[in-house]
Amino acid sequence: MNRSALRRYGVAYLFLLPWLTGLIVIAVIPFLYSLYLSFTDFDMFTAPDWVGWGNYREMLLEDSHWLKSLKVTFTYVFVGVPVELAVALLLAMLLNKGIRGLAVYRAIYYIPYLFGGSVAIAVMWRRVFGVDGFVNQLLDVIGIQGISWIGTPSTAVYTLILLKVWQFGSPMIIFLAGLKQIPKEMYEAASIDGAGRIGQFFSITIPLLSPIIFFNMIMQVVYSFQAFTPAYIISNGTGGPVDSTLFYTLYLYEQGFTNFSMGYASAMAWFLLVLIALLSAVGFLTARKWVYYEN
After folding, report:
1. Mind listing the pLDDT tens digit for each residue in 112-143?
2. What is this structure's pTM?
3. Which CATH architecture has domain 64-290?
């Protein structure tokens, strides 16, 4: 940088220096160091021992728990995200009808998103779906014998999916904002042409809302792959029963901070990063087929 440019931009760079320092020290250096650790055997107490592709080879070919955690996470993501977005869109359409007290309803529906990822909500959810929980008490009223929804392998992950669906507030608000941008004249014209509500939904609402749907889908998929707190609290950190709630992030935490296999955990983290990047890339490539942009 020459002297004149330094005089012109020096103050700006001076103010940016704290942020740049934080970025490099807190983000960039640990990011690159974790990549190095993923190729080592590191227990946090001794110096890292270089093993090359050993961690990745073990993860992909030998570790059955890793494969199970991936399956559980895929179930959570690819069942939970579509249902959550469907519920969010439905409620956004209902709130878009111009009802009284709209701001109050928006606030009420947004609250679960704010608190849904907290430890307190996870503890409450464990009680709600426990043997003597609220769900079984309701079933008992109508004469149905309940089960331990969290303690049964076939139903445990679906209780976590319900918790995810319950956190529909953020995509709902975004859907509502998108719905308000659709001109009412288009619905009126379609109605004159004889299109019913279902026809208007699929020929007007979905195409014009497709950029918002795409945005919410990408954000929720990325967020869901990183889910940790509900599985950790509800399963007491074990991923049980029978690994049915062993989320990928939970298994990564177990390897890194319980077994002290930080090199292996770093390899898992980098695999997750690449997986999310690939799925996002597939999403952007396929978006050309169904996402409609007016321009």
Report:
1. 887 777 788 888 888 889 888 889 998 888 88
2. 0.90
3. Orthogonal Bundle (1.10)
